[in-house]
Amino acid sequence: MSSRLSLYPALLSLLFLILLISSCTDMYDQPSFKAQEGPRLSAPEGAVPVRGIEIFSPDEKLDNPVSKTHVSIQNGKRLFAINCAMCHGPEGRGDGLVGKKFIPPPPNLHTEKVQSHGESDIYQRITYGYGRMPAFRKRISTEDRWNLVNYLKEFANK
Predict the structure, then answer these.
(1) Of 25, 35, 43, 134, whose CA is between 20 and 30 Å from 8?
(2) Residue of 82, 60, 62 lying closest to 146 (CA atoms)
(3) pLDDT of the residue at 56
(4) In this model, does residue 53 exceed pLDDT 60?
């Protein structure tokens, strides 16, 4: 009988532990976000951006050092197919396979709104990213980013 009585405290503590664990739902009560949904935290006002070697103000207008030749545009087209088409679509109309999952979808790069941006602005968006678009400064060389700008500006003619 005494061995049975010694089991009760152990069983009670085990039951208490099970109840404690099952009532702890902190993980389920936390706010969670699916991929590409989370709130983007922006830098505090007045923060100084550090962007590696290429440092310039968003207001600074850069001159395109790459001439708009057939070779430059073809290089931009090749780079677009590799780096951009999955979201922006093969023709830049915002209908890429990955981009279809985004809400809102990536922009149609042929629209007047997009084409009204200057070459410098487009270059900076490619370099440092914009919204959900990642930065390509470490993946694509400076010259190739300007080739992409030359190719994207050709969309205004289509």
Answers:
(1) 25
(2) 62
(3) 52
(4) no
